[in-house]
Amino acid sequence: MSYDDEEGLPLDVPKGHFVVYVGENRSRYIVPISFLSRPEFQSLLHQAEEEFGFDHERGLTIPCEEVVFQSLTSMLR
After folding, report:
1. ∠20-69-41 over CA atoms, to 5°?
2. Cα–Cα distance, 30 to 53 (Å, whole number)
3. Whole-structure pTM over 0.70, yes or no?
4. pLDDT tens digit string along 22-59?
């Protein structure tokens, strides 16, 4: 994976987005930062905090099935 030298972010993540990992296989998703203000997404973040805490060496992991995450994010777009 290539990184932006200035900000240290992966080059495939556009401005205004962030990466989460979902499901047992830790599939990588790039989602808009605007999702952070949505109650539905905040609920997922709360679940992530309860299950994993905030010490993530390998990125933010959302503890739900991929199909559920895909369904939710398709409704938020």
Report:
1. 70
2. 21
3. yes
4. 998 999 999 999 999 999 999 999 998 898 877 666 67
Residue 31 lies in domain: 17-76
DSSP-derived secondary structure for 33-54: GGGGGSHHHHHHHHHHHHHH-S
Q: Which residues contact 14 (CB under 8 A, 6 or more apart)?
A: 30
Q: Which token pair is 52? A: 């994993």
CA distances from 48 to 7, 21, 61, 77 (A): 25, 11, 7, 21
Q: How many C-beta atoms surround the C-beta of residue 77 within 10 A?
A: 8
Q: Which residue has the tokens 């938020």?
A: 76
Closest CA to 48 of 35, 59, 32: 59
Total number of domains constituting the chain: 1
The two structure tokens encoding residue 76: 């938020």
